[in-house]
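Hi V.,

Quick status before I head out on leave. The structure for the redesign project is tokenized and pasted below; the design run finished overnight.
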């Protein structure tokens, strides 16, 4: 479909038998919808009442090798949003890496039900002072982060947390949801949850010497998202 940033594409994986949610997933700046975690979610989530929409940004559809500026990525995502909401269901805005940043930046204005951030690039590799935590904490809706334990763009322990090492101090008006085996962190009006994929890199790939297989690592991802998505609607 046309957007102000160019021609984009949505590949639908419909829920069966009945859809309760739409999960829209954008890709990163270095790859497309063939990413292992996006493919795994598209294969598993439909059986749990979640229609998965894999979104290809205009630059990717045009065959370009380099992603444009974040502002242009946001424009493309906004242009796709009416099609994502057309089924009349709540939409989880999500993506991996740069796609996760887009989802966080635009969630509030677009009325997303929640945000799924896969491999959120908290900072450039080796540059922790260049934090993008404000984007994550500013999403303003329930957010799930799925992060590789060895992600050079931000390991789980680097993510911000209220009350580290003591009882969590929650600002007035902040609502906390249950943690998924990691921690719940107070953000701007909502908490975010963080799930670690042990040994995973930025693409959630695990080395052969790891004590979990690649298949098991992807099951960590899909199980966490199934549980979390199920908590968003009755």
């Amino acid at each position: 479909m046309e957007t102000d940033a160019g021609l984009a594409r949505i590949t639908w994986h419909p829920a069966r038998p009945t859809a309760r949610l739409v999960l829209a997933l954008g890709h990163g700046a270095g790859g497309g919808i063939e990413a292992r975690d996006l493919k795994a979610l598209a294969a598993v989530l439909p059986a749990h009442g979640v229609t998965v929409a894999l979104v290809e940004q205009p630059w990717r559809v045009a065959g370009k090798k380099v992603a444009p500026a974040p502002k242009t990525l946001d424009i493309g995502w906004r242009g796709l949003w009416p099609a994502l909401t057309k089924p009349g269901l709540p939409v989880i805005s999500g993506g991996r890496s740069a796609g996760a940043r887009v989802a966080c930046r635009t969630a509030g204005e677009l009325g997303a039900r929640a945000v799924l951030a896969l491999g959120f690039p908290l900072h450039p590799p080796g540059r922790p002072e260049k934090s993008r935590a404000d984007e994550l904490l500013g999403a303003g809706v329930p957010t799930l982060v799925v992060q590789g334990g060895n992600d050079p763009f931000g390991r789980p322990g680097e993510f911000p947390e209220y009350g580290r090492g003591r009882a969590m101090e929650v600002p007035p008006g902040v609502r906390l949801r249950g943690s998924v085996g990691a921690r719940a962190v107070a953000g701007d009006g909502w908490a975010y949850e963080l799930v670690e994929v042990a040994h995973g890199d930025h693409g959630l790939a695990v080395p052969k010497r790891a004590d979990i297989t690649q298949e098991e690592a992807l099951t960590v991802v899909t199980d966490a998202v199934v549980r979390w998505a199920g908590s968003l609607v009755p």
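Above is the designed sequence. The longest strand covers residues 50-56.

G. will cover questions while I'm gone.

Best,
W.
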